[in-house]
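Input structure tokens:
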């Protein structure tokens, strides 16, 4: 039988206690030991002690930031302690600590900018470490045919055991959420797209009537509409204005794109200035707005700045959007690729139009869009 592993004792201290007996007061001291990270953290917090000092200086714990060893657990710029990582931040057996970059040099946390690495790493190695960070990130997300519902993606996100278990539990749901499922049932590709689109409809007046009947279904649908409206009207005018500004910022549109869409002359299409942008729910539960939708055709108009045109920006470049927002070009490209692939999974055909492309030859772009949209009538 293997000997029991000796526990690591971080601190030993005496706890003072008093008790009264027969009119006399007695003081006792009990020996206490701290053998867990959380226990050490709580003790140091109560007594205003740096627990990282104890782990690093007394017990020689190794510090990792983005899987790279570092010599100090304090920020090189503001001298504050680096924040702990959310998961696996301390390993007693391996005597290691995982910390995060300090946020003192970043104006927001939407994207990790290159300058953030200066809070931990020396300037001579920042470039190399940052390039490795971008390479690993784009390697995981760059494939155009990435299938978020495959068993490999489950194993990658949750580990071998838990990933297989979750995949098997969700398999019946995942099957009907794939266009391959309907094609395997004998449907044509066009019929499979329609079936998949119908599968994605979660709440509508027609669905309520089909399930509950005309009277109860209409009543149920009307209650939901009133509830949504009451949620908005219950807010103050300042909150409503803030929501509208956020929608304008996150889901805004360019005026030049509306000039192109108006010139196409399709009155029953949906875009920002013609009925509003069409929104649909993705497989991951999030919603996406289409720049231009007509039938099963979608046109996305990419601005050169907001979508980082490859003709103007190189990999690793940082774009300043507004007064405080900084984004890495690679992050924007990956985001757009994922967005496009998710729209295609919903059963739509997608055409991408770039701003510089339209500015250089508007008539050619217009003809390209009309030819793309007219394919609907020929299919």
């Amino acid at each position: 039988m293997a000997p029991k592993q000796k526990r690591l004792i971080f601190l030993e201290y005496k706890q003072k206690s008093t008790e009264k007996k027969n009119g006399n007061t007695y003081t006792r001291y009990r020996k206490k030991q701290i053998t867990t990270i959380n226990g050490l953290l709580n003790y140091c917090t109560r007594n205003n002690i740096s627990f990282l000092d104890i782990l690093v200086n007394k017990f020689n714990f190794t510090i990792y930031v983005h899987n790279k060893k570092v010599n100090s657990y304090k920020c090189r710029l503001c001298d504050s302690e680096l924040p702990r990582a959310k998961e696996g931040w301390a390993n007693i057996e391996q005597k290691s600590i995982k910390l995060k970059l300090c946020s003192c040099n970043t104006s927001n946390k939407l994207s990790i900018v290159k300058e953030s690495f200066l809070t931990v790493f020396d300037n001579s190695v920042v470039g190399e470490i940052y390039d490795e960070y971008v390479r690993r990130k784009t390697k995981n997300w760059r494939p155009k045919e990435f299938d978020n519902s495959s068993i490999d993606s489950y194993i990658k996100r949750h580990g071998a055991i838990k990933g297989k278990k979750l995949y098997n539990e969700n398999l019946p749901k995942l099957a009907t959420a794939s266009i391959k499922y309907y094609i395997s049932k004998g449907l044509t590709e066009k019929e499979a797209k329609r079936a998949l689109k119908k599968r994605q409809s979660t709440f509508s007046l027609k669905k309520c009537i089909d399930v509950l009947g005309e009277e109860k279904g209409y009543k149920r649908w009307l209650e939901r509409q009133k509830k949504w409206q009451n949620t908005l009207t219950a807010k103050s005018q300042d909150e409503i204005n803030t929501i509208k500004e956020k929608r304008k910022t996150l889901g805004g549109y360019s005026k030049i794109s509306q000039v192109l869409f108006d010139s196409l002359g399709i009155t029953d299409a949906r875009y920002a200035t013609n009925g509003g942008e069409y929104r649909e729910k993705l497989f991951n539960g999030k919603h996406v707005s289409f720049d231009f939708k007509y039938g099963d055709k979608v046109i996305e108009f990419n601005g050169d700045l907001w979508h980082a045109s490859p003709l103007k920006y190189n990999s690793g470049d940082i774009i300043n959007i507004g007064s405080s927002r900084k984004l890495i070009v690679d992050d924007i490209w990956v985001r757009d690729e994922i967005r496009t692939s998710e729209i295609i999974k919903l059963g739509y055909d997608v055409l991408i139009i770039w701003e510089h492309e339209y500015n250089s030859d508007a008539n050619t772009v217009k003809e390209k869009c009309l030819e793309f949209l007219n394919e609907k009538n020929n299919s």
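The mean pLDDT is 76. DSSP finds 14 helices and 14 strands in the chain.
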